[in-house]
Automatic annotation (TrEMBL):
The name this protein goes by in its record: O-antigen ligase-related domain-containing protein
Domain named O-antigen ligase-related: residues: 248-391
TM stretches of this protein: 23-41, 62-85, 125-147, 154-175, 195-214, 234-256, 262-279, 291-310, 383-403, 415-434, 440-459
GO CC annotation terms, alphabetical: membrane
Keywords carried by this UniProt record: Membrane, Transmembrane, Transmembrane helix
Compartment annotation: Membrane
UniProt membrane topology term: Multi-pass membrane protein
Length: 469
């Protein structure tokens, strides 16, 4: 069911589509029910602890504060729904920040004032937005509690989806602007895959790059590296060449999208993944081989750049073009933050941005703005202080987990498969967090579910080596 959620999400081209959302919600409810039953069984009968003990490990429980922070995040659709959708008396409602303006406008228009109103300025949009968060939370919890073999299968599903998206994008580009493979998307050109625009395809592919590195590291390190020579030759044979081609295709198609945010996040993620690969293989590589591996990664990237065309990429990164686009997005962000201040501390309500933003939009702006193109600014405007607390809770969980991973690495004196799995998935989730400073990736179902799953894998509790007598 977790694999099905991840596989079906790219079918939704963007935003919250109620009919498709019903299917995802049904699947999410089934997945959450199975997870609850499975985790309850393990806690009652100690199945997970017994399995860890048989592997020579002892289960390390999540610290209490981490469990509380995780519960705070996972239950957010429930408590945000109660906060934003519970009716308030009209007098109390109008006294809240940013809301008296609407009563004044209604009175000026000769309308009748309601007796009670929910906190949200668009309750229907808020309900849809909160429901749309449940599939992402289901994939997050699945990644936290599913056993590792099932996690590995879900990662394979994501990589297969990446291959499908790349093939679709190449066919779209080959067939031209009128291709039926754009599925009726207005003014769609170039590489977009099943998404609404190239930025979202780029972000999806960048999130998959660390998974490619993880499979490469697991195929060339650990047990495989200690196997017989014939097994190592098999890894470097046809399957190895195909895997290298897949990684090259990931990089080429990402560059071909010409998404500036995607290129930035890809550069950061690729550097981090290469360093992590060197750390993973350092016991098997000499210093000279480590340097050669870094040089090979740079040549790999340069070849991909040459395949796409350095001039085309350079045009997208031209200073004048970047400055003009950045000015537009900065104007959106500044107006959004103005709205966040107006509605502080309760926000305008989840999912209300499209209907509320025109109040703060510049009078001479000709754009119709559905999203802020900065998910963090939009989070502040819609959710206010609760949104800030949610972001801080996630940030605290991420920082604490990186510290735990570093301590475990020092204790093990090597990057084990378990540590590599968490670290690479963490870098995949980081790609979305970085790109979301200039995009609305968190509102696209496929991106939100993929990032939530990768974040869940990253935050998984770790097994510690069993203490010796």
């Amino acid at each position: 069911m977790a694999c099905a959620l991840l596989a079906l999400a790219p079918v939704l081209r963007g935003g919250n589509r109620q009919i498709a959302l019903v299917g995802l919600l049904l699947l999410s409810a089934l997945l959450l029910a199975v997870l609850l039953g499975s985790v309850s069984f393990d806690r009652l009968f100690g199945a997970a602890d017994g399995a860890a003990e048989r592997r020579g490990k002892q289960r390390v429980g999540m610290p209490l504060w981490s469990a509380v922070a995780l519960f705070f995040v996972a239950s957010s659709p429930l408590w945000l729904g109660l906060l934003h959708l519970t009716p308030l008396p009209a007098g109390s409602w109008s006294s809240l920040a940013g809301r008296g303006w609407y009563f004044d406008a209604l009175a000026a228009a000769g309308g009748n004032l309601p007796q009670s109103l929910p906190l949200s300025l668009n309750p229907d949009a808020t309900l849809t937005a909160l429901l749309s968060g449940i599939p992402a939370l289901a994939t997050l919890l699945a990644a936290l509690f599913l056993p590792r073999p099932l996690i590995e299968k879900c990662l394979v599903v994501l990589l297969v989806l990446g291959a499908f998206e790349m093939l679709l994008a190449v066919l779209q580009f080959w067939m031209g602007a009128g291709s039926p493979l754009y599925f009726g998307a207005d003014s769609a050109t170039g590489f977009v895959g099943s998404f609404a625009n190239r930025n979202h395809l780029a972000d999806f592919l960048v999130m998959l790059m660390p998974l490619w590195f993880y499979r490469l590291a697991e195929g060339t390190g650990g047990r495989a590296a200690r196997a017989a020579a014939r097994h190592r030759r098999a890894h470097l044979g046809g399957a190895g060449a195909l895997w290298l081609f897949f990684g090259f295709a990931l990089l080429v198609v990402t560059l071909a999208t010409l998404s500036r945010g995607g290129l930035l996040s890809a550069a950061l993620v690729l550097m981090a993944c290469t360093l992590l690969l060197i750390v993973k293989l350092k016991s098997q590589l000499s210093r000279k081989q480590q340097i050669l591996l870094a040089v090979a990664a740079a040549v790999f990237a340069l070849l991909a750049l040459a395949g796409v065309g350095a001039e085309r990429v350079g045009q997208r990164l031209d200073k004048a073009t970047v400055q003009l686009d950045a000015e537009t997005r900065n104007n959106f962000t500044a107006a959004t933050l103005e709205g966040a201040r107006a509605f502080w501390p309760w926000g305008s309500g989840a999912g209300t941005y499209e209907s509320v933003f025109p109040r703060f939009q510049a009078a001479d702006s000709l754009h119709y703005v559905e999203y802020a193109h900065n998910d963090y600014a939009q989070l502040l405007m819609e959710l206010g202080l609760p949104g800030l607390l949610l972001a801080l809770a996630v940030a605290a969980l991420v920082v604490a987990q990186w510290v735990r991973l570093l301590r475990a690495y020092r204790a093990e004196r090597r990057l084990t498969g378990e540590l590599a799995l968490r670290a690479y998935c963490g870098l995949g989730a980081l790609a979305l967090l970085v790109h979301s400073t200039v995009e609305f990736n968190m509102h696209i179902p496929a991106l939100a579910l993929t990032a939530a799953f990768l974040m869940g894998v990253f935050l998984r509790p770790m097994d510690a080596p069993r203490a010796k007598a």
